[in-house]
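Sample A.
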Amino acid sequence: MTRVKRAVNAKKKRRKTLELTKGFRGEANSNYKRAKEALTKADSYAYRDRRNRKRDFRRLWITRINAAARLNGMSYGEFIHGMKLAGIELDRKVLADIAVRDPETFRRFAQAAREASAAAA
């Protein structure tokens, strides 16, 4: 069997790992073994948090909508239910943006939701 010399590929792999860990603290940016461990951790955190970011933003939007709805005398649940009954199909991201930037428009949405809830009851 022919002999395989790994020096070039091994060095390239190590160099790539150390380049990816540039800016890490301690030995994690200079010691290959520590850098490899840190990079594995960093990748797993990045994967997990790409999913968690979606949760976090939805929670933020719901909190903002709830605060604006309560200023208009409704709870979040009543507001969302009234919006569905009124046939207004805006997602939470847009509603939260309206709540923060344009309270008057949000007040009109709340009024429409209140009227739709009253009509259904």
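Sample B, a different protein:
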Amino acid sequence: MTAQITIGHDSSGKPAEFDIEELLATRLLVQGNSGSGKSHLLRRLLEESAGMVQQVVIDPEGDFPSLADKFGHVVIDGAAYSPGEIEALARRIREHRASVVLDLDGLEVEQQIRCAAQFLTALFDAPREHWYPALVVVDEAQMFAPAAAGEVAEDTRRMTMTAMTNLMCRGRKRGLAGIVATQRLAKLAKNVAAEASNFLMGRTFLDIDMIRAADLLGMERRQAERIRELERGHFLALGPAITRVPLAVKIGPVQTGQQARSEGLMALPDTAPEDMAALLTTDLASDVAKAPPPPAPPPAPPVDEIETSIAAAEERQVAPRGEPVDTTAVATRIAEIIAELAREEGIAFQSASAQYQTFLTRCRRERLIGPMPDMRAFRRRFAVACAELAELDEALQARIMQLAGAVEEDLLGPFLVIAKAAHAGETQVDEAALARAYGTSSPGRIRRLLDHLERQGLVVVREDFGGDRTIMVPGLEPLADG
């Protein structure tokens, strides 16, 4: 089976071919303003390669479910499943190499971002034996990998940035080839865009986007105006999977999707102004009273063809019926996993959401069945493990945790390090240990941390003229000299 597909033709009429095997190793970035033909390009690429490789489409606008009609993609309505079910579906998709469209059109923007992030993370965290090659297409990628913080919550932004960075930076070894499409390069995170080696640049008008596109294509900046002049459906291509020199390509026709709407003018209705006013305002109150309730969310689409084939795999992931779960053993293993994470190099410098996702992933890999700590409980237990409070007796641990009750979760780790050192009679805390617990290498952040803890009345800091700091914890007696 050939790995070449034709996506269109160049200005001379010669077919423009895409090497799918090379694409799997080098990734693709597509850019084009609204109306440039970006979605048409993605559809052409997906249709032509549908029989060659597994395809996973993240679709925030509901543009690609029609692929199911002709090519057998399974459409997953993101609004119909819980977060846990979305992750389970992603694991099944990798195991059984199903081509799917994750339709996020029924969700609000922040819910779209969280759903896609959890789905991508689960794809990325699949077991090694399921690392089959797959194209992962993310449309409107600027939503999921924004260049700057937007209106979504910070933990959501971190979650989606981690997922997109993993896809584009580390996905290749796991068989995942990222294809990201964006309306504006300036709005897409640079570390995500920089990982692509293939580019298809459509029409764009803003200077900042034209200059970035020209730089990626290896064109001189004075040639950037060429990008502004591209017609709908025309793209400049470059990359090892398509061409070694910039090439103008007109994208070929597609077999699925809605017919394009007419872009021309349409005659207005021939209605007198007074009649039109009557049509708009007559009996308006009765329409309000008879307004139907909001439509119920659509039912989950049938995925029998997947569920039937994976029944045995699903049984392996749950406790056998009739056999009780040893909750004590599960709780012990959870504590061990948290302790193992705390000892890993560099883990403290990751975001709290990334740490929690790593913890959940390891629990899933070991198929631990039982109650899991939520995000807040995990952060406190992780801070305790990083500070190695288990070395102390239970009474002292309880006393330190009582003092730490008023400490914010993101400051708990460094406070516990300080408290443990204060009990041991150490007036000068190991700043390396403090920096590791706080997840920073900045002396300035350490100083601000201590100032904040002192303003809260949690520590007392004295600094001499030589710069040495003495730190004490009110209410905690130091260990008496023996």
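Observation for Sample B: The two ends are 79 Å apart (CA to CA).
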